[in-house]
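Structure representation:
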Amino acid sequence: MRIPKRKGEGDYSNDDGGPIYLTKEGIEKIKKTLHTLETIEHPQARRDVERTGQFGDFSENAEYQEAKSRMRHHEKRIFYLKEKLKRAVEIKMGSEMGLVQIGSTVIVEVGGQKKIFQIVGPSETDPSGGRISHISPLGKILEGHIAGDSVVLKIGNRETVYKILEVR
């Protein structure tokens, strides 16, 4: 039997329970967000629930329902961030033995242009900013290669050749 969800309740359980690879900056960002939630936002939501609960009939009290929903959202978010921190594995930036791996910065040539990619965990990707996941199609084919290698990314019936120029 499925447990019903209230409208607007986020689902923070869509991962496999394995390690979460994050940069030092990513871990610090989560800690900062968690601190703000625990010390400012959640206590305020709790006070709002108490205040609006005094207005009377809960079933027709829209302000109370909204405050209660916001408080539940904060509680879920706090739980999710704490769990994420428990499973966080800090990415050591750089490359061992010149191999492309998580934490590496890779300079490639594709279509006559140089591109720089930093290989990070899935939760810190920003393809337009040059940060790709180690489990993305490109991240997977680059991993384990060294400068001078060429790899081919096949998407559908299209092939793109990436020549690895440098691995840092």
